[in-house]
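new request in #modeling-help
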Amino acid sequence: MSNKFIPHTEEDIRFMLDRIGVKSIDDLYAEVPEEVKLKGDYNIPSAMSEIEIRKYFNELGSKNRQLTIFAGGGVYDHYSPSVIAHLLSRSEFYTAYTPYQPEISQGTLQYIFEYQSMISELNGMECTNASMYDGATATAEAMFMMVASAKKKNRVVISATVADRVINVVKTYAKFRGIDLTVAPEKDGITDFDAIKAELEAGDVAGVIVATPNKYGIVEDYTGYADTIHAAKGMLAINADPSALAVLRTPKEWGADIACGDGQSLGMPLCFGGPYLGYMSCSSATLRKMPGRVVGATKDADGKRAFVLTLQAREQHIRREKATSNICSNQSLMALYATIYMALMGKEGMKEVNRLSADGAHYLYNALLATGKFEPAFPGKPFLKEFVVKTSLDIKAVNKKLEENGIMGGLDLGNGMVAFAVTEKRTKAEIDRLITLMTEE
Amino acid sequence: MKYYDKLIFELSRPGRKGYELPKNEYGINECSIPAELRREASLDLPEVSELDVVRHYTNLSTKNFGVDTGFYPLGSCTMKYNPKINEEVSAMPQFNNIHPLQSEDSIQGALELYYNLQVALSNIAGFAEFTLNPYAGAHGELTGLMVMRQYHESRGDFKRTKVIIPNSAHGTNPASAMVAGLQVVEVKSKPNGSVDVEDLKPLLDDTIAGIMMTNPNTLGMFEVEIMEIAKLVHEAGGLLYYDGANLNPLLGKVRPGDMGFDIMHINIHKTFSTPHGGGGPGSGPVGVAEKLVDFLPNPRVKKNDEGRFYIDCGKDSLGSVSTFFGNFGVMLRAYAYILTLGKENLKNVGPMATLNANYIKECLKDDYLLPIDGVCKHEMVFDGLKDKSTGVTTLNIAKRLLDYGFHAPTIYFPLLFHESMMIEPTETESLETLDEFIEVMHKVAKEARETPDDVKNAPLTTLVRKLDETGAAKNPILNYKTLKANAQ
Amino acid sequence: MSKVLNDVRYAESHEWVRIEGEFAYVGISDYAQHALGNIVYVDMPEVGDEVEQGEEFGAVESVKAASDLFSPISGEVVEINEALEDAPELVNEDAYENWIMKVKFNDAAELDNLLDAEAYAKICEH
């Protein structure tokens, strides 16, 4: 039986069976009805040594192409400092369970407290939880919070300028939970505020969800939103790129009650879509409706400062079907990732990342327009690292050619619209090459 | 070693930095973002050097207990060893540098991995197909229950709005049902924790969407009447949902699909050795029987006749539950684990986990109250000490174990007993480790009789001692700014 | 042994109600506060809310438990005990002195649906 992950020798097994008082391993399954017992082997590959495992995954990996990325769509090719991977490989972090025994989990509890502090600093909200799965599910949970807070209202309005993939998940959650979700239309690439106002007039709206930057990369002006929505006894939730909040007006400054979004932009590897993390923050007034784990500071019996999971009575393992959400574990190790990233980049680095990305994006934008083959999709709308242009070029053919040259081009939004994203990892030379490849005859 | 309790913010010094970025060579002077759309507040993130960061988080790590530190007998959590080759594979640049929106041609390796793991899990669990999109066990439960509802509604049956859940179930089950828009109907458990079939029968009418169960149940006992339950639920038009929390002891012995279950989720971070990460990222794939595959969430990964992998979004799907393809990095680890054990060894996981559990149970039942005797599966539940005369509780024992270098068992769950203590050793622990644990458990029982205050005041030797949890909940301090303001 | 007062009436869900003129004061019983342990938060309704007998109107949280509150009487909330916002532990100190909400009630006949001290004390024994 013995294997490198299963230490039992024949002698161990004999000794343990004797102690238990049964004759064979099969006797340990004697009560299992014969008809459900597995007969024969699993139809899976044979065991591999580590040498073979490395070979297998290297070969598999070679079927992927690592490209120079000029696309975003909610996932950005930001720089990941070397330090993070090294620290995350400390197995005291990654082999621990949820910190239910605080006396021997202060490492996890403290980094979550730091994570909460840093995310709150970025978005200005007082309370942040220990993380959610991803930005889309965090936004769906924001919808739940708004409905739970409103007590008797069951309708939520989401702007069409929130990313489509986020809206899709929110729709799924709304459909099953029985929440009435309205998608408010967009106009010239931004939310149609008049349409939102019209929805609010019905008096049954628990809250409104918008995004910054929005799905086109546009930084929308939400002046007047919070006041109008609050006057209608609703709440405002903003889905925001946390990296961008180092320079953009924060959800708090817009008067939001909830901030949520995807933490991938905090230096996380692309990794084919996950793991990233969702973040969730809110005002103190909404704290008790916030799902997920929360870490608080306290003291131990000797008066030492220490950290502990708190407000657990809100959670599913106690409230059962009365909880706001069913979330238990989240993306804790990715919260550590984000924390170390924010610690390294710090006050200035976070701004510099945005400046470099935005300057690169504007350089590309200007250069594309200068070729005469692209025009603005939404003229005059401010953007940071992602933008949309219109072209009469065959986008599919262009992107295929780019890929042959090791480049992931802009995302094809249909109708001749292409969305490009530039991060601090791109260079001027790479951008120049992109333009040449796209526009040369 | 000196006790370290600084926060990263407390190391901050204005002007210090922990990063370098390339020179800005774009020559762009104006910013397209008008002032009123820019952040007004200062950004009080730490200003620290790279070494500050490295030392700080290294010091924090030493304040944690993990599976690599010592035995972690946390019941229902399957804290098995997390193989290192898994970590190596998941860190490979060929997977880490792939954008989820790349063309199918450029991500064939990633799609193949998703597909192969899906196929392997389907075979191991006895289902037609798995989605790997759900991010965690609870997310899998939610997704699976959505499949259940979608199935009934696709047949035009809108009456089935209730799901039956045993009263012994974990709180997440009813919470997931509520989020999926299903009402919970509780079915009673018999004293041994198994579903009371006589109580179940009258509940089965045409408003029942299905039943949600674990097997082995919460007490670690196999539900021997499972085929009868499956028959009754199916006859009533309902579906059976298998909560994969307790799958580990069945590896090599029983496939959930063969027990009549229609839908299940697997906690990859339990059964398939991926790390718990201090609370995620996990992965909660959902498997379904043939008649339910079209309802699985989008996107799905499929393989065509030429062996090419592609992404498919079905029109009958329940919708999307994730932005992309779930926690892909976790899938890499799980597949490395499956390939490492292979068909020759994966089948031994269940039996050895069960052997370990029964050994502990036999060795501890002299000092600890075993409410349900008989062969258990991967875990067992004691109802505290046999001799409770000195007032030592399960909580005291759990905390005393920390003093002796062991993680505590799961305590006060299941709710069927007042002093529940749930122990799950997993197959990766050796006889010697189990014996050390058993010896300490006996020692604590002896202390409880002879010097009960030592147990009641535990832990005594940990870095921090008993925490003021009431104060933390009454006056929540959730970030550094509040902490600093309160200190002044 | 928990304290059971004679001058109030009880719901099976452990809330009490005391009538004073046209108003009713509502709180949780001594038995309930004891069962919950250290109370850290009381989720109270808003003034002006309509409550109905048997319907949820708030919740009480301790460190590791939470319990919904069900109104023993119907009417309009005219006052909430704001002292509990900062000092929820007052409920532990004296559950009958520290009421949670004051209701202008609709129908005194509803009291007949509630338990008297003797009947309530029996429930607490089980």
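bot summary: The mean pLDDT of chain C is 90.
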